[in-house]
Amino acid sequence: MELDLLSIIGIVIYLGIVIDILQTTLSMQGGGWLTSRFSHFFWKIFLLLSGKNGRSKFLAHTGYILLISIVLTWVFLLWSSMVLVLYGNPGSVINSTTKIPADFWEIVYYSGFTLSTLGIGDYIAGGDFWRMLTTIYSFTGLILLTMSVTYFVPVLSACIDQRKLGISLSTLGSTPQEMVINSWTGSDFSRLTSKADDLANSIIKYSQQHRAYPVIHYFHNNKTKYNVILQLTRLYEALIIISNKVNKEDHPEKEDLNPLVVAFQNYFETISEVTHISLMNEAPPAIEIRKLLEKRLIEDSGSPELSQGEEKDRRFFKTLLHQDGWTWKDVNAKSS
């Protein structure tokens, strides 16, 4: 059987969407080829509509609207692909009573109830090939509905974990300097080092959830105190201060902070792969240390000497903040 151009386009769309669904829900390597691009474009539109303001309540609704939009896009494109294949072949669908070939809108109707697996029966396939095609689309619709539901549940669970991480990090402090001060007991930084393993595990889990469910990147918390990207930036700045700036006699052992260092490197690697982020060229402002001088946790007012890796990581965070509607001032601004 020769297929016309409409049928070929329909088949290409079908294969492309099936691949995208499988990549998004099963691959554990980030979103599919279409879902990743659609999600990024969708977020940029919402960010522009919010005035690029991370505090906007409008942005807080982006995540679940995007999730619903992804599924609706899958359904629409699968539906369209079936319509194109059938409409390009007159007689592929017929009225079950009169045997008259279906017109365009009747084919749209037939394709819709096939994908939804309703099986109404007032229109039927016009031959064995079309019966087989109908069966394939019916199974695709069933699998799509099942995979969508099974995808929704862990995504929402991952979003809860994301919020929990933001709240957990907020207990350390609202600015990098405050995190350093709150970690100091008067003799060591055990208030931080004692939590390092648990915090590292939470950050690694959060990173890997991005790989499995990259859509959680667009579930935005508009509160500066609990926003996970802001809090991770603050913690990383605090680690740089503790590692490079506090008095040597007060400096914690390298092994005590290593779990957090490893967790952050995993975070940078995963987010880079999932979001395909392009780093901003401009470096963030110098790390603020005035309050630490007042507390005599550091001896001089010079900025910490940073390695190339640390400078790159700070630019990474600056880029993430910009894409999430924040500025670097928000990192050091205390808020409720």
Structure description:
The protein is built from 13 helices and two strands, in the order αααβαβααααααααα. It is an all-alpha fold and 336 residues long. The chain folds into two domains: 5-149, no CATH class; 156-332, no CATH class. A two-stranded antiparallel sheet has the order 1-2. Helix 1 packs across helix 2, helix 1 runs antiparallel to helix 3 (62-87) and helix 8 (196-212) runs parallel beside helix 10. The model has no long low-confidence stretch (mean pLDDT 90).
Give a short synopsis of this structure.
Helix content is 63%, strand content 2%. By secondary structure, the chain is mostly helical. The model has no long low-confidence stretch (mean pLDDT 90).
Biggest sheet, spatial arrangement of strands: 1-2
Shape: elongated
Q: How much is the average pLDDT?
A: 90
Question: What's the total number of strands?
Answer: 2
Gyration radius, in Å: 26 Å
- Termini separation (Å)? 67 Å
Following the backbone from N to C, one meets helices and strands in this order, namely HHHEHEHHHHHHHHH
Structural class: mainly alpha
Helix content: 55-70%
Number of domains: 2
Number of helices: 13
Proportion of residues in β-strands: under 5%
Q: Major sheet, described briefly?
A: 2 strands, antiparallel
- Low-pLDDT runs of 5+ residues are none
